Amino acid sequence: MDPIAKELIVGESGDERRIAALVRDASGAHSDLPGIVWLGGYRSDMSGSKAEALCRHAGEQGRASLRFDYSGHGASGGDFRDGTISRWLEESLAVFTQFSSGPQILIGSSMGAWIALRLVQELRKQNAGGRVAGLVLVAPAPDFTHELMEPDLTEAQRQALAQDGFYEEPTPYGPDPNVFTRALFEDGRKNRVLDGLIETDAPVHIIQGMADPDVPWQHALKLMEHLPSENVTLTLIRDGDHRLSRDEDIARILAAVDSIPAKP
Fold first, then answer.
1. Tens digits of per-residue pLDDT, 216-229?
2. Concatenated DSSP letters for 107-140?
């Protein structure tokens, strides 16, 4: 069964965003397996190779699957420059609530891992934390604005943020430059997770490349310090880059998903 394209309007009057999603319900003999929810990275979309492979794998197993684009990304509406962690988290929570049911595995890539961790926190506030069967965090970049970017901002970038509200920089991942806004940095500080214990009550698998030019592998170690010691697994890939989209990388991600058991 192919995934079904759906849409959801998120936001109040004057700030509505049309969020595009691809949804597949569970089916077959293994429909009791946790579903999967894909949370993409900064400026990535749900048509990437990892998202496609995970959706295909879920379909082969009869798992439910859900992937979507944040506002300003891919097939969704909205202006990318309006994006913040809080805004994309609001959309993620709305999509999760509307289009999934029962236990789910959150699979967060890069910034998506930050969103996944915040999503767990918000679900726990709603007494719905039990719906998270596990997390698979790929090249996780929680708190990347505060931890990875702010310390290395140039004086020109700081001036651009103060005067223009944004700065741009080239990226090897596409023809258009990355755009980072003052609002993203300010909002990022409000969404920090590496400032205390991150309670998940679920297995966590971290997969990190040691040749990642964007997220140092030491950042994954720091994340582990904020997670409970039990049920946390870290896989370091010596020659792995940030995308981790080679066949062997995707195989590791799929194996991590399969290792998370159904909730009793």
1. 999 999 999 999 87
2. EEETHHHHHHHHHHHHHHHTT-GGGEEEEEEES-
